[in-house]
Each structure stands twice: as C-alpha cells, then as structure tokens.
Design goal:
By secondary structure, the protein is mainly alpha-helical. The protein has one domain. It contains 12 helices and 5 strands. The strands form 2 sheets. The protein has a 3-stranded antiparallel β-sheet with strand order 1-2-3, with no helix packed on it. The longest helix has 31 residues, at 111-141. The radius of gyration is 25 Å and the shape is globular.
Length: 356
C-alpha cells in the first residue's frame, strides 16, 4: 500500500496496487468499564472470602469444636501468611484488566507537603473515628453488639510484634493492593471514581464499624496522593505515619493501665471514671505514661484541626478530573452489578455480627 498525505496532513486513506482507495480507521483505546469493574468486584469477593475462610480453617479445631489459642505474635504471623495466600488469586484475576502505570508528577513533594498531608490524614482519621464510635454507641443502645477491632486488646500483649506488623507490613501490603492494584486499573474511568472505589473497599475490608469510616476517608486521601504524585511511596509513608502514631498512643495508655493495675487498655477505657483516675494518678509510672499519651492525643487533635481548616480552605485541590477525559456512567463503574454484589458481601461481614 502507498500512503499519501495532502497539505502535509496525514490521511487515513491508502492506495492499493489496483489504485483503489481504502480508508483505515486508527486503532482506538478500548474502554470496557462494566467488565473491568465487575472483574474488580469478583476479585475483592474472592480475596476477602478466601482470607476469612482460611482464617477460620486454621483457627478452629474441628475435633475439639473450639478455637485454637494463639499468642498475639502467632496470630499476627498467621494472618500475614493467609492474607498473602488470598492475595495471589486476587492478583491473578485482576490481570484480566488492562492498565497503564499512573503518570508521575514533576511537582516537588517536600517535607512541608508531607506535614500538610499528615494533618489532613489525622483530621480524616479523627472524623471517621467519631462517626464509627457514634454508630457503635447506637448499636449498643439498641441491644446489638459493638462492631470493633480487636487491636486494642492485642496491644496489651506482644507490642513490638504488633508494631512491626501494623507499621511496616500492613501499610506496604495495603497500599500495593488498595492503591496500586485498584487505582491503576480504575484510573482511566475517572480519577474521582478511582479514589472513591479505593477508599470504599479499603474501609469495607477492615470488617468493623469502628474502623470503617476512618479507613474509608483516609483511604480516599491515600488514593488522591497516589494519583496526584504517581508515586506509591508517598501514600505508604503517610499510612505508616498514621499507624505508628496510633500504635504509640495505644501503647502508652496500655502501659498506664498495666502500671496502675487496672487491667487492659479496653478495660481502662470502659472502667469507672472516678476509680480509674484515682488508680492512674496514685502511681508515678502510670501517671507518666498517661501524661505522655494525653499530650500526644492533644497534638493529634491540634494537627487534625489544622487539617480540617486546610481542607475547608482548599477544596479546589480535589479538582482532579481532566476535561478531555471521557466520562463513564456510575452504573457501569462503581455501581456495576459486580461491585454492588461486592459491597453487599463485604458489608455483611460488618453488619451481621453487630445485629445478630
């Protein structure tokens, strides 16, 4: 075929050997939003179902019809191994979705930007935690069971194992899964949709109301940072910072409770206020741990307040959509049949234990 152009403009027309003109349509990127989001929903159901199924399989003694008793370290390592095992089919399924790596931003990401983002993360974490606590209070007042994380009680055990688990492995694994694996594959259908999808799934996989709301909010912000910079390390570092700060505060309060002889951290939080304060203030070690913990908590709320003010005065920072980007309906993306089934399945793990 002989290609020709007219007025220096390349045409999609070619002469074949018989002099017949053929029009060739350029190959365009194929978008299949419903298919891709349905695959994502299936992958999440497989991951979460397999993970919880393996946990049950390896933690329940069928012969004695009772649960095995693990130390905190054993439980953490077992959960790690089973989570990785469930992650492998998740990756295999998502290979069916075509994607391109996110474009990397040339904007400088310095320490000032990091501190600003930490304040925003703390603000979203505090707001989400307040909402979660309110929901749990309403559930308890209605005669249900509080939907809470077991992390508080585990802190009283092997603290250093939990520190390594929650500050190193968890942020890296979760950012790879929830940001790189999910955002990279949904980014082309809209940045805001990718952020919402990543945050919602991140909140749901935490499996309880106590963590759902703050995980949902900070998960969206982690996705925003990843999209804005194109570099996963920034969201990983923010994730590590949040987990480390929370772990240190919980450790200080648990040490105060232990020194005062008032039981575990969960017991001190639910104990008689007058008796608890008396026990804590009469012991110098307990008072020291409590004071440092309160100072760190106050600092967290100050940074959270700064984060809220910044968010309210910089709402335009979340204007991410490209005017030239093709728009896709929500019913074919975040509300596709596969995603709706996924939301219902994951939400059932949170709601059913609280109401039954």
């Amino acid at each position: 075929m002989n290609e020709f152009d007219d007025d220096n403009g390349l045409k999609n027309e070619y002469y074949d050997n018989d002099g017949i003109v053929e029009t060739v349509i350029p190959e365009k990127e194929v978008f299949t939003p419903a298919r891709d989001y349905n695959i994502l929903g299936i992958a999440m159901i497989v991951f979460y179902g397999l993970w919880n199924g393996l946990v049950l399989l390896f933690s329940y003694n069928i012969i004695k019809k009772d649960y095995f008793h693990f130390t905190v370290a054993q439980a953490a390592l077992l959960s790690l191994a089973l989570e990785v095992a469930a992650f492998l089919p998740f990756v295999f399924i998502l290979k069916k979705i075509k994607f391109e790596p996110l474009p990397k931003s040339e904007e400088k990401y310095g320490f000032g930007t990091y501190l600003k983002n930490v304040c925003i993360v703390f603000s979203l974490s505090v707001i989400g935690s307040i909402i979660g606590n309110i929901i749990n209070t309403l559930i308890k007042s209605a005669g249900g069971t509080e939907s809470k994380s077991g992390l508080v009680d585990m802190i009283s055990g092997d603290y250093y194992i939990m520190l390594i688990f929650t500050v190193s492995f968890a942020p890296i694994f979760e950012e790879i899964m929830m940001r790189r694996m999910i955002v990279d594959r949904t980014y082309k259908y809209g940045k805001l949709k990718a952020i919402l999808t990543s945050g919602l799934l991140f909140g749901l996989v935490h499996g309880n109301f106590e963590q759902f709301f703050y995980a949902f909010l900070v998960g969206m912000f982690f996705a925003y940072v990843y999209i804005k910079t194109g570099r996963l390390r920034h969201s990983i570092i923010l994730h590590m910072t949040l987990n480390l700060y929370s772990m240190v505060i919980m450790f200080l309060y648990s040490q105060a409770a232990e020194a005062a002889g008032v039981g575990s951290l969960s017991q001190i939080l639910g104990a008689n206020e007058g008796e608890t304060i008396k026990a804590l203030t009469e012991n110098s070690d307990a008072l020291m741990y409590l004071t440092i913990g309160l100072i760190m908590t106050l600092a967290e709320y100050v940074m959270a307040f700064i984060g809220v003010i910044y968010l309210l005065t910089h709402l335009n920072m979340f204007s991410l959509e490209d005017e030239n980007q093709k728009r896709f309906p929500v019913l074919k993306t975040i509300l596709s049949p596969g995603m709706i089934i996924c939301y219902i399945a994951l939400a059932a793990f949170i709601i059913l234990p609280a109401v039954l």
